[in-house]
Design goal:
Blueprint (H helix, E strand, L loop, with lengths): L4 H6 L2 H10 E6 L4 E3 L7 E7 L2 E6 L5 E7 L4 E2 L10 E4 L3 E7 H10 L1 H27 L2 H15 L14 E3 L4 H8 L3 H13 L3 E5 L2 E4 L2 H8 L3 H8 L2
């Protein structure tokens, strides 16, 4: 079943029944390629669990992380014969997958859902533009703080059985090299900035993939962004 609430709310009961009929769950282990760059773009849908990494390989063979998809995010490329990016499971991933042509026919039959789909993609484009502005105009510390805030809003793999008064645990779905590539810095600089956040009492490092968030207000201040702007970037 599609988990994107805006699409579900836009469709009639009949439309949702049809959508459920053409969709199915697929699981991919961490590190597996869901759809490679240049392959036929025959699969679309929503991320149900886990995180998907988007990467692009240049003509000289260099690969770069260009985006992340979290639960409820739409994946795949509509109205295109070829995938422009590689979709890789950054963690174990479950998808609600639909054949692209079947979904395009579904949208043609249900214009209200197609309208919400276009609106969602425009919102995503706005978030991408805001993220590009952060990458180009902010310090490395501001970029690191922004990404950690995004992880805090979109993280689902938190440590279980934590009390109500305990700080939330942020799950970091990528390794340091991938994060550095995504932020336009080096793994060494990234590590120094994370250590600075820890020494400042903003986070506590549990292990390389998990941080306790101790002071969200200071994390926001460190990002150089307003909370509203950060929430817009992090919104599903």
């Amino acid at each position: 079943m599609i988990l994107n609430h805006s699409l579900c709310n836009a469709g009639s009961a009949e439309a949702m029944t049809q959508l459920n009929r053409i969709s199915h769950r697929r699981s991919f282990p961490r590190g597996s390629i869901i759809q490679a760059q240049g392959e036929p773009a025959d699969l679309v849908g929503n991320v149900v669990e886990g995180v998907v990494k988007l990467s692009s390989t240049s003509v000289d063979g260099d690969g770069h992380v260009v985006g992340l998809l979290f639960p409820s995010d739409f994946f795949g490329r509509l109205f295109s014969e070829e995938s422009r990016f590689s979709y890789e499971a950054a963690t174990d991933v479950t998808l609600c997958a639909i054949n692209r042509l079947s979904f395009e026919r579904f949208l043609a039959d249900h214009p209200a859902v197609e309208h919400e789909m276009h609106k969602a993609k425009l919102d995503e484009l706005d978030a991408v533009r805001e993220w590009a502005a952060i990458i180009n105009g902010h310090t490395t510390m501001q970029r690191v703080s922004t990404l950690i805030y995004v992880f805090s809003r979109r993280s689902v793999n938190r440590f279980p059985a934590r009390g109500a008064n305990q700080p939330p645990v942020i799950h970091v779905p990528l390794g340091r090299r991938d994060i550095a590539d995504f932020l336009g810095t080096t793994p060494e600089t990234l590590s120094r900035n994370i250590q600075t956040l820890a020494r400042s009492g903003i986070i506590r490092i549990i292990d390389p993939r998990h941080f306790e968030l101790l002071d969200v207000a200071e994390l926001i201040r460190s990002s150089g962004e307003a909370r509203e702007d950060l929430n817009r970037i992090a919104a599903p």
